[in-house]
Structures are given as C-alpha cells and as structure tokens.
Amino acid sequence: MHRSGFRGGLAAGMVGLSLLAAACGGSDGGSEAGGDELVDLGTFVGDPAEHIDPALNVTLDAYQVVNALYDGLTELDYTDPAKPQVKPLVAESYQANADATEWTFKIRKGQTFSNGEEIKPSSFVRAWERASDPDFAGDYSYLFNFIEGGAEKLDGTADTLAGVKADDASMTLTVKLSAPYSNFATVAGFQIFAPMPSSVDKLKDQGEWENGLMIGNGPYKLAVARNDEEIVLVRNDKWAGDVNGNKWPDRIKKITFKVSADPDTAYNAFEAGEGDTANIPPGRAKEADETYATTLDVDIAGVYYFEINEQDPVVGGAKNVLLRRAISQAIDRGAINDAVYDGTRTAATGVTPAGIPGHKPNICTACSFDKAAAQKAFDQWKAAGNSLKAPIKIQFNAGAGHEEVVQIIIDNLKAIGIQAEGDPRPTETYFTELSEGKCQVCRAGWYADYPTYDNFMYDLFHSDSIGGNNHGQYDNPEFDKLVDEAKQTVDPAKQAALFQKAEELLLNTDMAVIPINFYKGDYVYNPEKIASFPQNSLGLIAWEQVKLKG
After folding, report:
1. Which of 165, 283, 345, 511 would be 324's cystine partner, CB 3.0–4.6 Å?
2. In this predicted structure, what is the pLDDT of residue 31?
3. Phi and psi dihedrals of 334, rounded to 5?
C-alpha cells in the first residue's frame, strides 16, 4: 500500500508499526504509561506525519494512524497469515457481476461514526467525491480511474463519479467500473475509499479536516488535534468491531504516537523506558533481537528500491539504459544488508515480493552485484559518446536511517568510475517533493496496500500514477497495455503471465527501477509487558488486537 517514509516506504507508502505497554516503566524498555495505554516511539521517525487524512496520506507510517481511525468496506483477515482473506467490514456483503465490471455492497445497519452519525452508502459517495475532486485530490487519487467517470472527474471534465450510486433506503452502494477488475473488493477497503461524515461538507478548506478533531469510524479516535510532537488516539466506544465481530477484548484505551528525531534517538528512548516500542536502527537488529522481542521474523510484502527519473537528461531515457544497468549491477546489496540491517533482509531480485500471487523469483537480470558487468556497461555507455559532467544526485529522506545505504551505493559507483553524491531531503515533505518531479535517482520504499500484483505494477509504474506514486515518471505505452490487460483478466494464471511480462519490461529492458531488498518487520518491543504484537505482511498493526500481559 504505502510509501515507507521511515525505515524503508507509503511507503508509501504499502507500513510501520508500534507497540503497547503495561504499567510502570523503568529501564526495561517499558514506558510509564498506565496498563491500558501505549506510547509508540517507532512510527514517526525523523518528522511528523505530513498527512493523516485518508484521502491524502501516502506513507506507511501515517497509515498506522489512519487505519486505527477509519474502517472501510472490506478488510483483509490475517487469521491465517499465509492466506489472508478479503472479508466485508463496514459492508455486510458484496458481490460482482459476471465480468467484474459492477460491484454491489450492502452496508451494515446500525454503524456510526465516532460522533454518533449513522454510516450510510452516501457516506462513501461523499468520501469518494471529495477524494476525487481535482482541486483536493492526493497522490492516490488515480485509483478512481478504476471507476466509471473517475478519469473525467479527476481531469475536471465531470462534476461527479458517474459509476457510483448510493441507495440509503436499501443500504446499497453500487459501483460501476471503467473496466473489469477482479480485485476491486480488496482495493475497496483501502484508506482513500473510507467513508466520511457530513461534517466535512461544512469545511471551506478540505485540507483542514486532518488538522482538527477529524471524525472517523475505526477502533480509535483522535483525543486532541494532532501537532508536530505527537498524535494521541483514544478508544472509540462506538466502533462496530472487526471482521470477525470482535470488540475490545483487551485494555488498550489510549495510544500516543511520539515524533522522534531519528531511529537511534527513538531506540535509546525506548531503552530508557520512555516508550513501549521503537524502530530498530541500522546496525542494531542483532542486539534488539537478543534483548527484547522483535518483528524481525515477519515477512513483509514490500520492497526498498531506488527510482530513476525517466525524464532526467542525465540518467533517463533510452540512451541511458546502459548507465542505469551499470548502476544496478554495481550495487552490493549483500553489503548493504550486512552493514545496515545485520543480515535480516533479503536481496531484491525484482520489484514484486514473494507472497504476492503471481510472483516470479529472480525476474530481474541485473539486480545482482557484478562489478565486472557493471564496468562493462558503463564503458559501453561512454563509448557511445556519453559522459557525466557532474555527480549523479541520490535523493533520500534524511534522518530516517537511509544515510548508510546511500553511502554504500556512492562507494560502489565510485569503484567503477561513476561519481555520485547524496541529496538529503526533509522526511515530512519528501514524497510530495518526489511527486513534483524532484527526483534523479531517489530512494523509495513500498509496502503493499493489498496483496495483489497490480498494487506494485499499476500503483508504482503505470502512467496513470505519474504525479502520484510514480516518482520516476516512467511512461511506456507497452507496459501500460500489459498492466491494463492483466488487471482486466480474471484467470489467475493468465493474469500472472501478463504482469510478469510487464515487470520484465520494466526491469530488464527499460531498467527504470533499481530494487535493493525486500522488507522484514523491524520493530522492537518489551516481551515482559506485551503478550501479542501482530504485524501483518502489509506491515500494519491492528492496534485493537495487541494484547498485554497480566
């Protein structure tokens, strides 16, 4: 789902995590919060969240908060982590027609927002019209292209989403799609499709929604308006329950997400007893795993990578394919994994990770460290009359644990004669800057929003997502055609073959992206206080399911 803004997306944002605590603190990694409170030090590392409005957020970090504040039509049930199932949540049921072009959602009766307002089908129409308003739309707004009339709404030639109809009397929401899409039930549970209460209609500036006491329908609600130091959530007693009908089995009534300066500061504060969870800093995974409990055993459906700006004259375009191949083959992914992550991650051999239906192992032909091949590609690029007149700039979000990764890459490139330098940017606005085109070779991370192949191919590299999550402005009509056809294909085997062909074009022909590693869980928590801290393969924590000891 999200960009990984911290340790690795929106990811993102994809999704980070957090923890919870019991009673008194001390130096054992627990905080002084009460037994029903949690202090999280690991989610917002480097800068506060840029957005917590579900229509605007793109990072995994902030999705930890958004997911606690809002419930969607559907939800993934991770009771069996290896086989997540899509289940209705705010919807009572859903069904598609024969070719998956029309979807009908029946909304459960009796559900309310945290302010007591009833949730109706029109609550979703309100949210979707708001999120697709071209004057307000965020980086994920391209998802409305799935819906009939969505493209017209986004480009300003239509005032409404033609394919969305609400019948509040029968509690039915009908959605006509612009093309067949068999995964729409999964996507319908994503944050941008969450319902909105009528109070948003009263705002003159929709951008102010997230800066006040934003109203949602999830297990938690805002206690106070957010600020640059913390976000405080308290239990929403009007919450309707999870996909299995569970409501508040445990005692966590309050979560405080603290903003930390950097991963080391957060970890040190955790060790000092100032919080209940922290992100594991570079080089400290082994130490954390030996001393506390961690989520290092969780396989995350996410990838850490560097995007190439295809519009950049230095590194982009067809004439620079050999340069991009040289860069990719010069990078020692094993050295990065050992030096920065204590060997806990897996070198990426593609963009789409294992666990995503259709995944093909070792799909990338230039994603392994091969200094000789890298030198040969660079020399061939120069022999064709090309040269670098200045160091290549590598953008990354500062203070979020990426400095050492970038330095290793700089050293790797120098070894074959390519000069490069780091270009750190503020974490809070980093992905917004990338969406605006401020990328040459830029660090990114992606945690799946939902376990589908198109969540990697479409969301990150289709031309529809330029100006959103496609920071490299990759635009290849052949790639788009393959992805569009795959999304419309219901047969799983045929769909997978099309997506694989698209990924091979992206990685091996165009060399438009440089995968580095696949994520693992990277949070630390105190096992003496926390009995269960479930992180799913999307990196999300279901806060209402975290269990304390005692």
Report:
1. 511
2. 54
3. -65, -40
How does strand 91-96 pair with strand 441-447? unpaired
What pLDDT score was predicted for residue 71?
Answer: 98
Predicted pLDDT at 22 = 27
Give the H or E element holding residue 293. strand 293-294
Spell out the domains of the chain, with CATH numbers in brackets. 2-70+218-298+522-548 (3.40.190.10), 74-197 (3.90.76.10), 300-520 (3.10.105.10)
Token look-up 């969301």 returns 459
Residue 350 tokens read as 């593609």
Contact, 70 vs 239, CB < 8 A? Answer: no
Q: Could you identify the residue written with the tokens 């050492």?
A: 404
Low-confidence ranges of the chain (pLDDT < 50): 1-30
* Predicted local distance difference test score (pLDDT) of residue 5: 41
Residue type present at position 382: K
Which pLDDT belongs to residue 339?
A: 93
Contacts of the segment 261-266: beta carbons below 8 A, 24+ positions apart: 261/45, 261/46, 261/399, 262/45, 262/46, 262/399, 262/400, 262/401, 263/6, 263/7, 263/45, 263/400, 263/401, 266/41, 266/42, 266/45
For the chain, the C-alpha Rg in angstroms (whole number) is 23
Decide if 443 contacts 532 (C-beta within 8 A): no
Closest of 392, 320, 398, 331 to residue 367, by C-alpha:
331
Whole-number pLDDT of residue 543:
86
Residues facing residue 294 across a β-bridge: 524
Can you give the pLDDT at residue 523?
86
User: Using DSSP, how many helices (H) and how many strands (E) does the chain show?
Assistant: 14, 22
Q: What DSSP assignment string belongs to 404-472? A: HHHHHHHHHHHTTT--EEEEEE-GGGHHHHHHTT--SEEEEEEE-SSS-THHHHHHHHSGGGBTTTBTT
Calpha distance 466→375 (Å, rounded): 32
* 25, 32 contact by CB (below 8 A): yes
**Do the Cβ atoms of 499 and 358 come closer than 8 Å?**
yes
Peptide bond just before 13 cis, omega within 30 deg: yes
User: Residue 30 is encoded by which pair of tokens?
Assistant: 């627990």
pTM: 0.81
* Separation of alpha carbons 200 and 482, rounded Å: 39
**DSSP 8-state assignment for residue 298:** P
